[in-house]
């Protein structure tokens, strides 16, 4: 048997074992949820997972369900993209200039320290609710990209850069084979953390700002009308969307890195 075949089989076995473990863990917590709902025995306080899933499928038959998902997705994705651009750009500037890094440090630290809800309330004074989730999610993920990319750039060995300078390596090749190769892991890590955080902060902004036809608005309405089954159904929807978005985004990012031969 070829070594490559053995290695591939081992990778597949590990993935299968990992999938089984996570599936069993998920089943365990669903059983805990089901038991708790039976003990409480009041749907207004805690619905069963079966009822929550059933409600989600009922909502999915309504066009407004998909409109809300689309509107929230666009806002979250836009916030993530802007956060990626700004955070990465500021990291590069800080790497090239010590002065810029010192000037940016209090701002980055403030964004990381101040609660999300404080920013949401402040921004509501300045902008329309329809733009709130974009700004909040953008602001929350920018420091994540900044810290990770700057850390990746700072880890580059100066001797490698000196050798590239001595042998007159072109700027394009230095960016592709030295800088990009070092920040690949940092970018993956930033995306892993930022994607989930972007969804949480964006939806939280929608709940408070209540832009029309968004997931946040539907969550707030469920709470106002004490529709607990819809509240849990929307929560499950957010979790599934976040996981799906993260999986697709990381796959696309991996393909981009592979195309650059990183």
From TrEMBL:
CDD domains with a match to the protein in the record = TM_PBP2
**Domain ABC transmembrane type-1, residue spans:** 69-249
A Gene Ontology CC term for this entry? plasma membrane
PROSITE patterns in the cross-refs: ABC_TM1
Task: Indicate the transmembrane segments per the record.
Answer: 20-40, 46-66, 73-95, 107-127, 134-153, 231-249
Q: Where can this protein be found?
A: Cell membrane
Note the Pfam families from the entry: BPD_transp_1
Q: Which UniProt keywords apply?
A: Cell membrane, Membrane, Transmembrane, Transmembrane helix, Transport
InterPro entries given for it?
A: MetI-like, MetI-like_sf
Its topology with respect to the membrane? Multi-pass membrane protein
Q: Which domain of life is it from?
A: Bacteria
A GO BP annotation: transmembrane transport
Family membership noted in the UniProt record: Belongs to the binding-protein-dependent transport system permease family.
Protein name per Swiss-Prot or TrEMBL: ABC transporter, permease protein
